[in-house]
């Protein structure tokens, strides 16, 4: 399961729908039981990844990222779906525009 208080009530882009569509999350927890490719715009901060065979990991959005992306190839044996889920801090919904000489910093940390 993937948990973050900010998931509850958040709108996310469900890229598995055809065409991709915005969906409102009803919970602070995401359980993976089907392929997932979602962009949670405006959701950042700490996200906890809990699995049946490992200790929980916290993905900490340290600075710069405004969004959280969750994806899994669930059901695709060729991609190792039983041992794979991606949870990442991202700048996916809105681009960062920089003028010459400007810079942008993004940092995240994975903590056991």
Give an overview in words:
With 112 residues, the chain is mainly beta. The protein contains no helices and ten strands. A five-stranded antiparallel β-sheet has the order 4-1-6-7-10, with no helix packed on it. A five-stranded antiparallel β-sheet has the order 3-2-5-8-9, with no helix packed on it. The protein is globular and about 45 Å long.
List the total number of helices: 0
Low-confidence parts: none
Q: Average pLDDT, to the nearest integer? A: 91
N-to-C order of helices and strands: EEEEEEEEEE
Give the radius of gyration.
15 Å
Helical percent range? under 10%
User: How many strands, which pairing sense, and closed or not: the largest β-sheet?
Assistant: 5 strands, antiparallel
Q: For this entry, what is the oligomeric state of its chains?
A: single chain
Strand content: 35-45%
Amino- and carboxy-terminal Cα gap: 15 Å
Alpha-beta classification: mainly beta
Going across the major beta sheet, what is the strand order? 4-1-6-7-10
Count the E strands. Answer: 10
Outline, from the CA principal axes? globular
Structural features:
mainly beta, 112 residues, 0% helix, five-stranded antiparallel beta sheet, 43% strand
Question: Quick summary of this structure?
Answer:
The protein is mainly beta.
Fold blueprint:
Elements: E1 2-3, E2 11-14, E3 21-24, E4 29-30, E5 36-40, E6 47-51, E7 54-63, E8 67-72, E9 86-90, E10 107-111
Antiparallel strand pairs: 1-4, 1-6, 2-3, 2-5, 5-8, 6-7, 7-10, 8-9
């Amino acid at each position: 399961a993937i948990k973050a208080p900010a998931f509850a009530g958040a709108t996310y882009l469900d890229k598995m729908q055809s065409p991709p569509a915005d969906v409102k999350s009803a919970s602070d927890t995401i359980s993976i039981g089907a392929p997932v490719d979602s962009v949670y715009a405006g959701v950042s901060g700490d996200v906890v990844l809990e699995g049946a065979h490992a200790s929980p990991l916290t993905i900490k959005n340290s600075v710069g990222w405004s969004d959280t992306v969750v994806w899994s190839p669930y059901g695709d044996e060729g991609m190792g779906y039983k041992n794979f889920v991606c949870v990442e801090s991202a700048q996916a919904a809105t681009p960062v525009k920089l003028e010459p000489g400007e810079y942008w910093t993004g940092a995240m940390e994975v903590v056991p």
